[in-house]
């Protein structure tokens, strides 16, 4: 089986690389996609449309430009892995999970136990909740079995 897996969420750790490398080591036929993970580049995505003095409008334009990529990749994925990290609140990741739920696209959440409560609705719609990238890789391996 060949899958396209969208990696959503936290951008301040190497969890994406861990999953991609783990899937590669197991020879899984997976195409991984993701949002832009360079924070500064993502924040500046709308700057090409003109300088804004008000930070709201800069963020608004950048969010829309980023959404072109995000919306397209989520709509075309078979599965999404959404990571919620410890340091920052990933509101965009929660939005991505809700979008997947609305599209009936399966997703797996990846987060620590100490944030189960604030993510209860997101986890309730997920088809799996993992606490480690190793668990995610094992799920991917199972899904891709022939």
Overview in brief:
The protein has 146 residues and is of the alpha/beta class.
How would you describe this protein?
The chain has 146 residues and is α/β, with parallel strands linked by helices. It has a single domain (3-39, 77-144), classed as Rossmann fold. 47% of the residues lie in helices and 16% in strands. The chain has 6 helices and 5 strands, in the order E-H-E-H-H-E-H-E-H-E-H. It has helices at residues 15-25, 39-43, 55-75, 91-103, 120-125, 133-144, and strands spanning 3-9, 30-34, 79-83, 107-110, 128-130. Strands 2-1-3-4-5 form a 5-stranded parallel sheet, sandwiched between helices. The radius of gyration is 16 Å and the shape is globular. The model has no long low-confidence stretch (mean pLDDT 95).
Following the backbone from N to C, one meets helices and strands in this order, namely EHEHHEHEHEH
Percentage beta strand: 15-25%
Helix content: 40-55%
**Which structural class do you get from the secondary structure elements?**
alpha/beta
Kindly report how far apart the N and C termini lie.
7 Å
Mean of all residue-level pLDDT scores: 95
In total, the number of domains comes to: 1
Give the helix tally.
Answer: 6
The number of strands is 5
Shape: globular
Rg over C-alpha atoms, rounded to the nearest angstrom = 16 Å
The largest β sheet comes out as: 5 strands, parallel
Low-confidence stretches: none
Which CATH C-level class is it? Alpha Beta
CATH fold-type name:
Rossmann fold
Q: Name the CATH architecture.
A: 3-Layer(aba) Sandwich
Order of strands in the sheet with most strands? 2-1-3-4-5
């Amino acid at each position: 089986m060949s899958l396209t897996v969208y990696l959503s969420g936290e951008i301040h750790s190497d969890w994406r690389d861990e999953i991609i490398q783990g899937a590669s080591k197991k020879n899984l036929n997976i195409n991984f996609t993701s949002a832009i993970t360079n924070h500064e580049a993502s924040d500046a995505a709308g700057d090409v449309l003109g300088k804004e003095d008000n930070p709201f409008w800069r963020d608004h334009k950048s969010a829309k430009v980023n959404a072109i990529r995000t919306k397209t990749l989520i709509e075309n994925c078979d599965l999404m892995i959404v990571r919620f990290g410890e340091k920052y609140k990933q509101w965009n990741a929660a939005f991505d999970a809700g979008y997947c739920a609305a599209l009936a696209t399966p997703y797996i959440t990846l987060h620590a136990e100490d944030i189960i409560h604030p993510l209860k609705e997101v986890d309730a719609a997920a088809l799996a909740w993992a606490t480690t990238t190793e668990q995610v890789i094992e799920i991917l391996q199972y899904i891709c079995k022939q």
